[in-house]
Amino acid sequence: MSHNIVLQEGTILIADAHYCDKYPQFYTFLKALDSGKIQTKQLILMGDMFELLFGIIKQTTKDNTDEINLLNRLSETIEIIYFEGNHDFGLKKLFPKISIFPLQNQPQIASFKQQKIMLSHGNTKTPLGYQIYTYLIRNPFILLLLGSFDILCKNCIIKWLKSRGERKDPCYKIDGFKAIIEKRLLYLKDKPLDIVIEGHFHQNISFGVYGFEYINLSSFACNSKYFIVQSKKVQLVLQEISL
Question: In what order do the strands lie in the sheet with 42-45?
Answer without folding.
Answer: 99-101, 79-83, 42-45, 12-14, 225-232, 235-242
